[in-house]
Design goal:
Blueprint: H1 2-7, H2 14-32, H3 35-42, H4 46-53, H5 56-80, H6 85-100, H7 110-118, H8 123-149, H9 159-178, H10 183-198
């Protein structure tokens, strides 16, 4: 029976189903989303959802992986393809805001605005979030280190801490977008953060 099930082609598009599930989770959060909500959003029955993704946590984590994969690729290119530190950070924040304001009303970041609620009681979701935080820290730290080597970022600055602070701004943008802040206001906040980070001078502290 299992071999037959594995060999049978799916009658639906996994990625489309995850996109539909993601919208429900993004609005209601993981805990408040029911299987009936997911059935209604995806058009699949419970057995089909279970067979494809496992339980509700499995569906959520699959949607989370899809979201973070796209976000990592998009933001990674914006940072890595721009040699100038200030422009790279500006691109990074504006690329994130494009995602945060892609719905009406803006829902912010699917990862930061839903996963943080669940990590105390769901260890796998905590691990997923921690993994993304490390990846973004690493991406930004590499950019700060390259700028430092090129003499465009303060020689005495801690690049790892700078990366963590830069990512902290990203989290704040996500939360503020979801809380109703205008995109223009958050673009100003991002521009100020870039100026503060790039202009960091440890000797002045």
């Amino acid at each position: 029976m299992n071999a037959s099930r594995r060999g049978r082609p799916r009658a639906f598009d996994d990625e489309a189903v995850l996109d539909q599930a993601m919208q429900v989770f993004a609005v209601k959060g993981f805990s408040a989303t029911s299987l009936d909500d997911l059935v209604g959003a995806t058009g699949l029955n419970r057995p089909s959802l279970y067979n494809a993704f496992g339980n509700k946590e499995g569906i959520y984590r699959a949607a989370l992986a899809r979201f973070t994969g796209h976000l990592d690729a998009a933001l990674g290119r914006l940072v890595e393809d721009e040699p100038d530190l200030a422009r790279a950070l500006g691109n990074f924040y504006r690329g994130a805001l494009d995602v945060y304001y892609s719905t009406r009303p803006p829902l912010g970041c699917f990862l930061f605005c839903t996963a943080t609620v669940e990590i105390v009681v769901h260890e796998d979701i905590q691990a997923d979030l921690a993994r993304v935080l490390r990846r973004v820290d690493g991406l930004l730290e590499a950019k700060f280190s390259a700028a430092q080597a090129a003499g465009t970022f303060a020689a005495g600055a801690d690049c790892r801490l700078a990366a963590q602070v830069a990512q902290g701004v990203l989290h704040s943008l996500a939360i503020r977008a979801r809380a109703g802040a205008s995109r223009k206001a958050l673009e100003r906040m991002a521009d100020f953060a870039v100026s503060a980070l790039v202009g960091y001078a440890p000797d002045a502290v």
